[in-house]
Amino acid sequence: MQNKREVFLKTLYGEKSKYTPVWFMRQAGRFLKEYRELREKYDFLTMCREPELAARITLLPEKLDVDALILFSDILIPLLSFRAQLNYKDNSQPTVKIELKNLESSPDFSRISFVLEAIKLVKSEDREHALIGFAASPFTLSCYIFGGDGFSNLKAFMKNREKEYFELLENLTDMTIEYLKLKLKAGCDAVQLFDSWAGILSKDDYKKFVLPFVKRIAENVKPSIYFVKNSCHLNEFLEKLDFNCFSVDWRTSLKDIYKKTMKTVQGNMDNTVPLLEKRVIEKETVKILSETENIPHIFNLGHGVLKNTEPDSLKFIVDLVHERTLK
Ligand code: CP3
Prior knowledge:
Layout (H helix, E strand, L loop, with lengths): L3 H9 L20 H9 L2 H6 L1 H9 L8 E3 L14 E3 L7 E3 L15 H13 L4 E7 L1 H9 L5 H9 L1 H25 L3 E6 L7 H7 L1 H10 L3 E5 L6 H4 L6 E3 L6 H8 L2 E6 L8 H14 L5 E5 L9 H15 L2
Helix pairs in contact: 4-5, 6-7, 7-8, 8-10, 13-14
This protein binds coproporphyrinogen III.
């Protein structure tokens, strides 16, 4: 018998498994009633900082019958190790307040030990699911450090102050490698690197300003999944990266990515599909399953669950994927 964790890990390593595993980005969030109830009592950062709360929220999506849990936290949390101030306002981009000179120093991970405690708590309560830890790529993280419309401030810094940009990204890369290794050591079974904004760059800029850092993370941290969106023009670079799995959105074909990388693929349902009628959801799910029939595939959305999604629609997708792919 393979449990959910084994099915997920076998697939991640490109081996044959009993069925296609499923989880959803942002599955531990506002579309769940239990999350919203907790959120009325606590602010977002408190929920991240209290290991008991973070562990409880991480476990909520169990009821969807998913195969993997993703640790409840946020990509900006590791910036607290550089003494950043984070501000999460309702319905807008979070903002970061930090002195750039703080980012030249070494991170003080004792400031975010709550993340590792939450991982240990989840693991002590749950051995059935795979547990995924995560971080942002240094580029995507920098998008939030610099802010601005369309992340224009970072783009300007990158080009006007090339040398300082490279120094900053080297330091963020060191931090990210260390942070992800700590998460794996604390009990995560795999990690996902979110590069949500790399797709805003041209091919040449991605190659010069993002690829070297992501490459170093892939070489140093395993097992790992690389998530990019809006990235059709970047496909040729993915084969240069040694991740175990590539997670793409609905604009990119899973089959094409597999042919290029020969690695497990993850995704890529349009995140508005779960808002549709069951009949249509079924058609769209089956379409993805037929495209990935003979390739190692972890079913997911192409981007996070939208907050007006019915949990029951995600459970419907999970059941369908399990039933249709069971060997
Ligand atoms: O996936 C999960 O369920 C686990 C937890 C998780 C969160 N954020 C919780 C969260 C993960 C993996 C993230 C990653 C994240 N955070 C990314 C990468 C993925 C992506 O969406 O592209 C990014 C870019 C962020 C930054 C961020 N955090 C934004 C833009 C926002 C506000 C907008 C939004 O979508 O809610 C957040 C806040 C945030 N992170 C919430 C949650 C549950 C909502 C906070 C609230 O309750 O008000």
